[in-house]
Specification:
This protein is α/β, with parallel strands linked by helices and 369 residues long. It has 2 domains: 244 residues, Alpha-Beta Barrel (TIM Barrel), CATH 3.20.20; 71 residues, Orthogonal Bundle (Arc Repressor Mutant, subunit A). The protein is 40% helix and 21% strand. The protein is built from 15 helices and 17 strands. The structure holds iron/sulfur cluster.
Length: 369
């Protein structure tokens, strides 16, 4: 039974660093989008999912009626096997009313895009919400007893190790069971990159960014949150099930603008533009823009590279069952050099990135594609 991802591409504003597939919320466009989503879900989601992830964008930028409509789209499905149902949210878009609605629909977990609890950090990142709003959103989630995952960003211009430690410690004190800590990137075409180009802001630089990356597990481990993926930390037993399925090469169905799917050896990608997506659904019943049937070898390599992002690494026996490939055969040419160089190591049946390789994972993994 595949995992189900639902993309809601609306946000109340655009953050300065963001290059995700999202548009500024517009009530009538969101209504039209939900009508298209209804058609897509009814035709493409035929199996009962085990995990559901509603991401964006900001799903909670939808108003109460639209959220009701969104959750009604799952009514025809058997949701008794769902073990985790996550909705992404941002500070400033939550209310007790909305959270009760989420709870009644069956949502078990909220992933809150805090990014920083410090006003200076939020201003630099061009976030619309304030530090106070971030703390209020956390308080609402605590009050309604939702399992909570927080997103934080490190490495923004001007951030010091003390600033980052302070953010991590504030996040830990909220009782969040899961933290995602991403290093800031300066994507092409974003206002933040433009500010760096014009000299209005100065990037921290590799060494300072590395110091923040290295500080993260030290602060979090002492608070009971262990790293299990390069950017993700969880309390015992609280890893993100939906994402684990993705990292371990499981199948998934994605619905909505720009959503990706992987089923029966084929990858699908929907049209990314919201209007394009709506028009395609009405014109022909689906919005698939591209189908990519990749070879079993290419798929196994892709799966292995994503799986190596987990700190435990790849369970080689599970990998063989899932892909039909033995890791030593699949990477016969690359493995000796990467093992000798101290970038990869075997721990029993598990092939993993060494601790030394973690901060440079992208450069190591590209050798294995
Ligand atoms: S809230 Fe998230 S998706 Fe929306 S603009 Fe900001 S970073 Fe992008």
């Amino acid at each position: 039974m595949p995992a189900l991802y639902v993309h809601i591409p609306f946000c109340v504003s655009r953050c300065d660093y963001c290059d995700f597939n999202r548009v500024v919320y517009d009530r009538s466009l969101a209504d039209a989008y939900l009508a298209a989503l209804e058609k897509e879900i009814a035709t493409r989601v035929t199996d009962a999912p085990t995990t559901i992830y509603i991401g964006g964008g900001t799903p909670t930028s939808l108003n109460r009626e639209q959220l009701e409509k969104l959750f009604s789209l799952f009514d025809f499905l058997d949701l008794s096997a769902v073990v985790e149902w996550t909705v992404e949210a941002n500070p400033g878009t939550l209310s007790v009313d909305k959270l009760i609605l989420l709870r009644d629909a069956g949502v078990t977990r909220v992933s809150l895009g805090v990014q920083s609890f410090r006003q200076a950090g939020l201003d630099t990142l061009g976030r619309r919400h304030s530090a106070k709003a971030a703390k209020m959103a956390v308080a609402l989630l605590q009050e309604t007893a939702f399992a909570m995952s927080l997103d934080l960003i490190f490495g923004y211009p001007g951030q010091t190790p003390d600033d980052w430690r302070d953010d991590l410690q504030t996040a830990v004190k909220t009782g969040a069971e899961h933290l995602s800590c991403y290093g800031l990137t300066y994507a092409d075409g974003t206002p933040l990159r433009e500010k760096i180009r014009r000299g209005k802001l100065t990037a921290l630089g590799e060494n300072a960014e590395y110091a923040l990356f290295a500080l993260t597990p030290t602060v979090l481990a002492s608070a009971g949150l262990a790293r299990y993926e390069i950017s993700n930390f969880a309390r015992a037993g609280k890893t993100a099930r939906h994402n684990l399925n993705y990292w371990q090469g499981g199948e998934y169905i994605g619905v909505g603008a720009g959503a990706h799917s992987y089923q029966s050896g084929e990858r699908f990608e929907n049209y990314g533009g919201v209007r394009e997506y709506i028009d395609a659904i009405h014109a022909r019943g689906d919005a698939v823009a591209a189908v990519d049937k990749i070879s079993a070898t290419a798929r196994a390599k892709e799966c292995g590279v994503i799986w190596l992002r987990l700190t435990d690494g790849i369970d080689s026996e599970q990998f063989a069952r899932r892909t039909g490939f033995n890791l030593r055969d699949l990477w016969r040419e690359q493995l000796p050099e990467l093992l000798d160089g101290g970038w990869l190591e075997w721990r029993g049946n598990f092939l993993r990135l060494t601790d030394h390789a973690l901060p440079l994972a992208d450069s190591v993994l590209v050798e294995l594609v």
